[in-house]
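Mods, move this if it's the wrong board.
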Amino acid sequence: MTTEPPMTTTLTPDTTIDGVATLPPTEVDQPPAAESEVPEQEREVVFRLSEVEVFYGAARAVTGVDLDIARNEITAFIGPSGCGKTTVIRSLNRMHDLTPGARVMGTITYHGENLYSGKVDPAEVRRRIGMVFQKPNPFPKSIYDNIAYGPRINGTRKRSQLDDIVEHALTRAALWGEVKDKLKSSALGLSGGQAQRLCIARALAVDPDVLLMDEPCSALDPIATARIEDLMHELKDNLTIVIVTHNMQQAARVSDRTAFYTAEPDEEGRRVGKLVEYDVTETIFTKPGDPRTEGYITGRFG
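Not the wrong board. Structure tokens:
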């Protein structure tokens, strides 16, 4: 079991992460049977969310989120638009700190430490908990400088070290073979699928513990999507991955556990996102415990 150093302002350079509607039922690809499901008591919890709510100003965006996310698992968030999936995933690396008026209530712990404690450095949080967004966003720099950007910010200056980091990150993102001879070319010239893998490599370059992926394949063609999904399976040996997706087939293919969210009106008639059900992916797709989950999975709404 890996022990993570505390993410406080007392971190030293040695401890920072630098090397860091009714319709007929729709057929859904079922996930392969798990070879050996890890017993609940043996799962190493990375995130624990308890009574989490997120507000934008006075408006409650999502409520009732209680779940655990474990190491070396892929957790999928599914549900209709406006149900709070992205809102919750952004709370896992304190992205809401950057949104005026946004606040997170309840408790989110990361390796047992309160993620929103005043002693926790938000920049350190985002080194350890990387994020890939829906639309690929390479910097207007060379491919090399895109990957080296994070390590340089964290203090790595030696060219040989940067060379190794760039090659390793691009290799892990299954992109090295396609770009190794044009590292000085602009990253803006990459295809959509390549650009998204570049963004994954950029996140991996600071050696994160967790990778958050907010609809990473929504703008990609099927071939590029398959590459990203294969990559997720490879990366989970060393990472914890949380993915938001509108594609139920994708959730069934790639995830170990799935959380289903929906949006329902509150006492004032405002639609609020809420977590309905969270379980092993096979259970969610074959024997859901809530009729709302079954309705969404079978296409009766959403």
